[in-house]
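Figure 3 (text version): structure tokens given as input.
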């Protein structure tokens, strides 16, 4: 039995002893006088007293029970009764119900024999179906599209099955975080709208730890919900936490690739789980319908471990779009198992190497700034068999099946032909010209322009360089002895990432007293840009041993791609339009540093050029919400969404300097968008979304208890336990007040009747 009133009220049960106490105090007392004639009287009275004693006990019992029944009746007792399985009783009076539904994409994970989403929809249907006339019900989806405000869905009370199905169908899973705090605040505000007998706040979701609000925010909500007498319950829909292996990111140093050039694709993988995970990484490269290469690599991830996997890639002699796709075997959360990267392949690149006019007067080639760059570019263009590998007949590079790295092997080592990665000869057109003879036509026809120690250019060339960079060209600026701050700042003001201020420790290497250990700076090995990340590997050379003797300090420099040990930037970047300008504050040759004598010099030149030559083609790897901009000659270009069978949406056209561009701004979903003209297909564009639902771990015991305490909410994992949390006790059992009143009346009737019969 359960009592609605305070249990302290039951202290009044002591009043049930009053009939006994009064009987004891006021019972009839007699004085016994001993004389011979009273013997028979005493015997008679004793027999009569024995006969009336049980009658008195019955009367006292009836009166005691009547008082006890009156006290218990005032305590409003009832017998608890379990709610029907899977249902929540409505209760007396009106009900204001607000349901917070987690529609983030982690709800697609398996839950027993169905998914978490299916379980949520099933329970939500029962919650909406129990509403009656006079009730008020709101449904609040916790995940909303980017840029949208959280809105509640008003549910008619009562709602027909068709209306309930229509409302539930509006809950679409989104790759967005569950905004639990916003939903709780909205619920607290909406409970003020109506004056209801009962207020229920129900949370349906998997309650992942990434969705847990700050404890202080929950503490601010708790007194408001308590003041409104809101009953809050959370149904946690999860059976177990499995390790989730996710490909968080896939990047490359270039979106335009040239045949024979080597590139590096970086995959960021993470194991979201408290257990080790073994899986397989699959990498496939396709050009149209043709598969160029495919490889499977084993993965062994520790709990909560994150790795960056470097996949070296040498492009074959193909032209057009190439799709690189990486996938992992994982059954927990399938939306983060596949990542793709699209690149545009070209057969050859043209590099314009510009040197200062004074270089032609230097008799020794080793003292010319452009000599080292020209030598490095010539080395890059050689076939792979004679580049850096062992000088043995038939040597080739083979990809290690476990690490994916390219290693040199001898002929006949038994490596499968499909695994061999012999780089074809790189098609690189190199043109060397003095800055005094440089023409705007030469600039516009190049893919990348490298300036070695050039301090001044003509206004015509500067204007040509500005147009060149804006349209996707790449410009590399290197310092030298012929560069002076004022002249350079005036001539390159519209191109330079920052203004030059003064040189650091000018050392003349042609002096007789110059020493190798002259004052210098070292390079901090902390760069993270995709075009430089690979060269953190020690096999590419020890960059920390490069000595920078002379360099220019910068005025208000941007964040540097490469930094010196004193914090000064060595390599900085400026994006202009579609192109970029890289500036090395030291020399590109060997006059101000020891770059050219290190084995990574040609590798860095290679990295800079692969980046600078890749900017002319517009990016085909976009995220949801990004604008699609591309250059094409086909008229009337159309776009087809990932789930559309036909292309029906035209792209806006715009002509700039006799170049036709197309733009499309409705990239609202992830997938591959096809570009189709009236005559043929023009390739595709990959649109991906940020992965925010990969962390699928639930709350720890301490986090769960903190959530319950700070919000005043109870978390249950069984639906039948929700009735104990949401149903008011007075509406959840068999009422006993009527039975007790009837019992009091019967006891009083028996008391009066028996007293009159037995003691008249």
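Below: residues designed for each position.
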């Amino acid at each position: 039995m359960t009592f609605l009133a305070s249990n302290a009220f039951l202290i009044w049960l002591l009043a049930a002893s009053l009939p006994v106490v009064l009987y004891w105090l006021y019972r009839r007392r007699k004085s016994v006088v001993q004389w011979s004639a009273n013997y028979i009287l005493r015997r008679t009275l004793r027999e009569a007293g024995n006969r009336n004693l049980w009658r008195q006990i019955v009367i006292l019992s009836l009166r005691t029970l009547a008082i006890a029944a009156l006290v218990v009746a005032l305590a409003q007792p009832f017998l608890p009764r379990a709610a029907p399985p899977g249902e929540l009783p409505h209760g007396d009076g009106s009900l204001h119900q607000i349901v917070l539904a987690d529609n983030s994409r982690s709800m697609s994970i398996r839950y027993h024999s169905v998914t978490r989403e299916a379980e949520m929809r099933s329970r939500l249907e029962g919650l909406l179906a129990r509403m009656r006339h006079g009730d008020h019900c709101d449904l609040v989806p916790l995940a909303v599209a980017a840029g949208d405000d959280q809105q509640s869905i008003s549910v008619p009370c009562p709602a027909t099955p068709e209306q309930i199905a229509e409302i539930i169908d509006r809950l679409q899973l989104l790759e967005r975080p569950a905004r639990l705090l916003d939903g709780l605040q909205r619920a607290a505000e909406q409970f003020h709208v109506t004056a209801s007998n009962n207020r229920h706040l129900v949370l349906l979701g998997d309650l992942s730890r990434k969705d847990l609000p700050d404890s202080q925010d929950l503490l601010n909500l708790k007194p408001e919900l308590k003041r409104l007498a809101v009953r809050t319950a959370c149904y946690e829909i999860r059976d177990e936490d499995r390790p989730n292996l996710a490909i968080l990111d896939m990047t490359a140093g270039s979106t335009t690739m040239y045949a024979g050039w080597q590139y590096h694709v970086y995959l960021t993988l993470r194991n979201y789980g408290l257990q080790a995970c073994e899986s397989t990484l699959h990498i496939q490269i396709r050009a149209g319908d043709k598969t160029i290469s495919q490889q499977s690599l084993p993965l062994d991830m520790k709990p909560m471990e994150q790795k960056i996997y470097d996949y070296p890639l040498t492009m074959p002699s193909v032209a057009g779009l190439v799709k690189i796709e990486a996938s992992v075997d994982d059954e927990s959360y399938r939306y983060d198992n596949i990542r793709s990267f699209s690149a545009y392949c070209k057969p050859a690149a043209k590099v314009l190497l510009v040197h200062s006019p004074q270089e032609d007067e230097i008799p020794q080639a080793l003292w010319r700034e452009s000599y080292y760059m020209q030598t490095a570019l010539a080395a890059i263009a050689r076939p792979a068999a004679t580049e850096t590998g062992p000088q043995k007949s038939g040597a080739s590079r083979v990809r290690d099946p476990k690490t994916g790295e390219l290693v040199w092997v001898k002929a006949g080592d038994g490596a499968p032909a499909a695994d061999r990665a012999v780089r074809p000869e790189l098609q690189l057109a190199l043109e060397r010209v003095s800055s005094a003879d440089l023409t705007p036509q030469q600039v516009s026809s190049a893919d990348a322009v490298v300036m070695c120690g050039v301090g001044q250019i003509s206004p015509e060339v500067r204007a040509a360089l500005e147009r060149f960079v804006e349209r996707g060209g790449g410009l590399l600026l290197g310092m030298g002895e012929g560069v002076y701050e004022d002249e350079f700042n005036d001539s390159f003001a519209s191109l330079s990432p920052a203004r030059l201020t003064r040189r650091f420790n000018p050392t003349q290497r042609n002096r007789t007293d110059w020493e190798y250990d002259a004052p210098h700076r070292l390079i901090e090995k902390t760069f993270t840009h995709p075009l430089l990340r690979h060269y953190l590997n020690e096999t590419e050379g020890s960059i920390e041993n490069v000595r920078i003797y002379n360099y220019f300090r910068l005025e208000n420099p941007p964040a540097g791609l490469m930094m010196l040990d004193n914090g000064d930037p060595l390599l900085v970047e400026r994006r202009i339009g579609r192109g970029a300008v890289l500036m090395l504050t030291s020399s590109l040759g060997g006059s101000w540093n020891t770059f050219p004598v290190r084995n990574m010099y040609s590798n860095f030149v290679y990295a800079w050029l692969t980046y600078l030559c890749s900017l002319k083609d517009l990016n085909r790897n976009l995220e949801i919400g990004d604008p699609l901009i591309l250059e094409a000659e086909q008229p009337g270009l159309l776009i087809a969404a990932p789930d559309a069978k036909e292309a029906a949406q035209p792209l806006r056209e715009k002509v700039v300097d006799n170049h036709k561009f197309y733009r499309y701004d409705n990239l609202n979903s992830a997938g591959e968008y096809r570009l189709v003209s009236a005559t043929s297909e023009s390739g595709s564009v990959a649109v991906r979304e940020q992965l925010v639902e990969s962390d699928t771990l639930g709350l720890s015991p301490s986090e769960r208890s903190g959530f319950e305490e700070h919000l005043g909410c109870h978390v249950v994992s069984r639906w039948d336990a929700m009735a104990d949390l949401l149903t008011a006790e007075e509406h959840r059992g068999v009422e006993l007040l009527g039975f007790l009143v009837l019992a009091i009346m019967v006891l009083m009737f028996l008391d009066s009747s028996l007293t009159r019969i037995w003691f008249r």
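The CA atoms of residues 625 and 667 lie 6 Å apart.
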